[in-house]
């Protein structure tokens, strides 16, 4: 009986070695042989089953000795087959991974990294500047009511300034907001002075499209409300903002201007950076760009926001960020900003990576 055990072990080890040799080149075949070995040696009609039949004819002492040998060999066979099967499965999985591997560092189609839009870059820069000065960022809906877009901003129902906005109206009285000043009203309803806020986004007006006008463009509004706020505070924050955007001192001028929601109101203009003040299509040949409207918040607007104008005062400003981006990046025409031209957008990938790096 011991001789049969030795022969069985030698036979198994020989077949195991053959199966293991296939792991590197034919792992699937090695897996099949592992299953065949299991059936041949450990199955119900396998080699070990045959040995167990012969044990009944042995004496007690020999039966115990041979039984021990059978169990040891069976454990060796079981562990070896299990190890071979696992190695075969791992080798098959590795082969599948290698055959389907995609090197993501390659660029077979010469695809270029994406970039942020120049207006997005401008908004990120402005938010960075104003957050550093203690301003909180707010947002609001693009589809508004007459109350938030006009009435709460001191536009009377028949005020001629309403006609200047060339508004897109919907049935039922709603409209596409013509200015981001609507965000200021919504913020005042929630906040108590003192506060500093900015809000930005798309606005819509029925404009004739040219080099400096579009029907859909972007604005950024800001407001600061506290006790004893004056025009001096307004000028200071505007100067800090522009210096931060253009990373140098810029030439500006403040002219009286009328806006229903501020009193007194001003128009802040800067020397055109496209032509250096000599005159071009962007600045309409005058050398100056109307950059933003600003002024001291009108008492009626403070009241509409639930703030007592006898106790608090504030300044507000609003600017077109499309024009600001044109000045910053030397763009001479507003129309490519919203054309979807990828060649135009690629020009700003370096600026994007610099901003995000």
TrEMBL record:
Entry keyword set: Aminoacyl-tRNA synthetase, ATP-binding, Coiled coil, Cytoplasm, Ligase, Magnesium, Metal-binding, Nucleotide-binding, Protein biosynthesis
Catalytic activity, EC: 6.1.1.20
Single GO BP term: phenylalanyl-tRNA aminoacylation
Subcellular location: Cytoplasm
NCBIfam families from the UniProt entry: pheS (TIGR00468)
Assembly and interaction partners: Tetramer of two alpha and two beta subunits.
Protein name: Phenylalanine--tRNA ligase alpha subunit
Species whose genome carries this gene: Candidatus Lambdaproteobacteria bacterium RIFOXYD2_FULL_50_16
